[in-house]
Write a structure and sequence with these properties.
8 strands
Length: 259
């Protein structure tokens, strides 16, 4: 018989999905210890599920014992866009935003508990915000990072806070679980997030997420500017661009229709 409970879940599938999502955040093979911490699973439980994922060719394990998504999962089953494809597709959109805003536009990807800056376009003006390609920033001090945390819900945000202890970088950094949770959940609800001098005094950002075919987050898009020049009116164009890029990667936004 089918389970008639509308909220019925299969725990082992949920755990396997959590492990696959955790592995996908890393650009390099990742240890069992890190995956256990990311998913709040006991190492023995995570190891058992990972062995099954390896047997089914969704995960590979290298000679050092670290885990990565298999080629079969990435390119056949999951349809994931490569980092180079994401950058190549995003740059023309980023250049259009730069020309409209007159400020630096950034493309980021998540790796564990940080975002990595993988591309940027800068304006032709003397004073602008420069993010170094390859540099990293903790999730809780960036707009896109807070959106990524917001997608994980209260449990995911609490896990991040426990792992990192929420270090402060300025007096405006969200350094308590309660304040960070409120900010992340509010941001994901409205579809964009601010960085109000939380990473660096004098610098403000607005960020949105870019989604892939299956609704997974594949990148973050943001505008960085001196806080005195940042404008709320940029939100509309930034959100629209995030949706356009998501559509380029096969994402179909869900719509809710009333009866």
């Amino acid at each position: 018989m089918k389970n008639s409970k509308p909220g019925a879940r299969i725990q082992v599938i949920d755990r396997a999905a959590a492990l696959l999502e955790a592995i996908s955040r890393y650009s390099m093979p990742v240890t069992l210890k890190a995956l256990s911490a990311d998913t709040n699973l006991a190492p023995s439980t995570a190891c058992r599920i990972l062995r099954s994922l390896i047997d089914n060719r969704f995960v590979d394990q290298d000679g050092s014992g670290k885990y990565r998504l298999s080629g079969r999962f990435i390119y056949s089953g999951h349809g994931r866009s490569s980092p180079d494809e994401i950058r190549t597709t995003a740059v023309p959109y980023m250049e259009k935003l730069r020309d409209s805003f007159g400020e630096t536009i950034n493309l980021t990807r998540r790796e564990g508990d940080v975002v990595i800056y993988v591309e940027k376009v800068i304006p032709n003006r003397m004073m602008n915000v420069q993010q170094i390609i390859g540099s990293r920033a903790p999730l809780h001090v960036t707009g896109v990072g807070k959106l990524m945390l917001g997608r994980e819900g209260q449990k995911g945000i609490a896990g991040y806070a426990k792992r990192t202890n929420l270090p402060s970088y300025t007096r405006k950094t969200f350094s308590t679980l309660e304040s960070l949770e409120d900010e992340c959940l509010h941001s994901i609800e409205q579809g964009f997030a601010y960085d109000n001098e939380e990473a660096e005094t004098g610098v403000g950002c607005i960020g949105v997420l870019i989604y892939g075919q299956f609704g997974e987050v594949i990148a973050g898009l943001s505008v960085s500017a001196p806080i005195m020049r940042r404008k709320d009116e940029w939100v509309r164009d930034l959100v629209a661009t995030g949706k356009q890029l998501s559509a380029q990667f096969g994402y179909v936004e869900k719509t809710h229709s009333g009866r």
